[in-house]
Each structure stands twice: as C-alpha cells, then as structure tokens.
C-alpha cells in the first residue's frame, strides 16, 4: 500500500506539471524573445513531458526498490 505522504507528493507534483504545461502553452514569447508558434509550443511540451516521465520513472524505481527491501 502506498503511504499517504507518497500520494500527497504525487498530487502536488502533478499540479506543478499541469501549471508549467499551461504556462508553456499560454506564453507568446519565450525567454530569448522568440515568438512561440504552435510547433514550438508542442516541442516545448514534448521536452517537458519527457523530463516529467523521467522523474516519474526514477521515483517509481526508488519506490519499488524500497518496497522490495521492506518485505
């Protein structure tokens, strides 16, 4: 069973992911002053999504290793 703190952390992390995703899609100009077209927004979102999936993979790997040593 997953602990309550683990679930809370996952929810907070997902909310943060959603907020950054909304920011990436609503901004019109990036940090360098380049205009954000739909293609650039989709590429930015893809990079952000791959990063997020990598973080989730590491978290679940740690979770399964910890669960294995617990039993």
UniProtKB/TrEMBL annotation:
Keyword presence, Transmembrane: yes
Keywords carried by this UniProt record: Membrane, Transmembrane, Transmembrane helix
Transmembrane segments: 43-66
Keyword Transmembrane helix: yes
Protein name (database record): DUF3923 family protein
Organism: Blautia wexlerae
